[in-house]
Amino acid sequence: MSNSLFARLALADVHQEVFRNIVSIRESQNLYDDLTGNPDEWLLAQQVEDEVKPPPYRSARPAIDRPFEDAAWFNVILWPFRNWQASRFSDGAFGVWYGSESVETTVHESAYHWYHGLLRDAGFDREAVIGERKVYAVACDAALLDLRPAVGDYPSLVHRSDYTFTQSVGARIHHEGHPGLIVSSVRRREGDNYAVFNPAVLSNPRLFCQLTYRLTGDSVVVEKQTSVGWLRLAIEAL
Fold first, then answer.
1. pTM of the model
2. Which of 48, 67, 94, 196 gives 20 to 30 Å between its CA and that of 82?
């Protein structure tokens, strides 16, 4: 069935920033808290630092030229390629990097995995739990397979929990050496997700924002500023 899917796919020529949402401890990264007590100014200082220092990921061959100079390259881009795990488009035999077209879509996707894949499995689904995240904007330059128009005919591409079909799609993409794909978000109807199989098409990760997730009763409350709610996601909708 995946063969007929590939027969109808087109390419999307992507040259844009894609957002990557990763686990990160907010407080341990506040290296500027001796200069100001304002969390927004801490974030601004971190962004300025990222802009002015010469990171290796601005090189055309960042993993080859200067691979140990900046941890951001490894944490934001290389981590899933070196730490393989099963996911929507991989059975765990190879790594896939996931990003989204917006911060909001990354929040819906990551909140689902945070709650269902971590808290509920560990028995903390009824506790007041806090999780801290960082969102990076990463440049993506690649011709990606566009699966979005095929979702109507192949609903298994966006099945909420069964990855059997999508893992077969990912296995072929990986085997044939395609750089990646775009697919509609499962958790946010108007969003898109990017699955990248080749780190060479990703570059220039820069800190975009920090987030705090708070499990409060029947919702996950997401904060950009500490104790100031930004998004509220109902557990039953995740």
1. 0.81
2. 48
